[in-house]
Amino acid sequence: MTRSAHTFAYARASSLTVAETGQVLGLETAGGLTPAGADAHPQFFAGFLSAPQAAARALLAVADVAAARYHRRSLRASLDPVVTGNGDRLRFESFSGCCGVYARLDVLPDGLRGADTGHGTTNVDVNNPLREALSRMGGDDPLHLRVGPDEMAVTTLDGPVVEKKVPLPERWLRGFAESQAVTAGFDLRGELTAAETARFLRSLPRTATGAGAVTGPLWVVAAGRTLRPTTRPVPGAVCLPGPERLAALQRVLRHATGLRVYGPAPDGAHPTASAWEVGLPGMRLTLTLSPEPDRGFSGEGGVLEALAGDETAQDADLVSVLLAWEPRIDPADLAEQSGLTVDRVRAALVRLGTAGRVGYDIAEAAYFHRELPYDARQAERHNPRLVAARTLLEAGAVTLEHPGTAVVVSGERRYQVRGSGGALSCTCQWWADYRGRRGPCKHALATRMATRAAGTSTSTATTTSGATR
Description:
Region (Disordered): 450-469
Domain SWIM-type: 415-452
Protein name: SWIM zinc finger domain-containing protein
Distance between the termini: 55 Å
Shape: globular
Strand order of the largest sheet: 11-7-8-9-20-19-18-14
Number of strands: 26
Largest sheet: 8 strands, antiparallel
Strand content: 25-35%
Structural class: alpha+beta
Keywords: Metal-binding, Zinc, Zinc-finger
Mean pLDDT: 85
Pfam families: SWIM
Number of helices: 13
């Protein structure tokens, strides 16, 4: 797994202090993007939180995921959360070090008081002393939140800075894109009251071993106002892969107003991803789990089709110019502004997701604009299957036969790729193992690229011929 060193530079460490008006939570920001361009220390908010204790514990839950590895726990993981200001709300996001859990805290308009919210994306410093202070916070004293430097901090930006240098794996970046591509196909499968939420989450194991540990995929299905375990994926069931990975939600149980569970339609007995959204006063905290604890989102392959086409790349460039830090992106509006079809806009949004430029809010079934403060283009350039497919294409290894069929030569083997209903199957071992559940194999992807290239060439030749006549 390729890793690149990424340095977060903060004007000072984030802290929780006491002031005359109550407690002050100062979250320091590192370099990010705003409507005015790059900013070394952007400020997105300075006001009060409507539910101080719930917000503090929810932020800790997001930080828990950023510092965790749920697979191969002996390896270190420590990545600061990302915050996005969307004009009317703040979104805090993180990914586990193993790429299997995505966390997001949406602080909605009802959760913010006393100030306007800015626009842009950056990292925020969540250090160990701050975590300890937030854990000890009690009472109902007002909590003033500052995301970005105050006037005093601005005057000291030329002085010493707090730096954190962390290894940033490329598969972690791909995980952001894959997780939102997966959740875009989810539906609401169950909804619990506050009391049932606490009961259900407290019944789950907190570790992967020991008493109560679960081996193999666990399924639950809505039964009245609760969730009932089931031994098989019956209609309406949701997979709960590695239930101990929901441990971060324990932080907010006393403040939870309910639980909403999302997932795809069951795919036989195969485990699937799922999303678990806890409602809080003026906020939503969501954890999205990969299909298996030892399986990160980065290899799911849900974005490969969008990355394979040159047309999609051009559409994404056009759509990106129209984004304006919206908290809710309407594909129909973008289609009208860009002149593209809604389907092409959706494909462009998937591609923009691979560059960290949009996220997906499952509660509102809509994309939102954000700009991850990393060189997320590396995730596309170094995607193993995409790179392998392009290598096959450039080597002339793809021979298109009659429509929907191709022969792909890879090494000493020849693979048959067939199309049916717009989907491609292959005679390779990858297809035999996954049957499209983890995206196309490199042979099918190369075939898709070759087919598109041939279609473009034919179209160009026809146009040229017509012009000559």
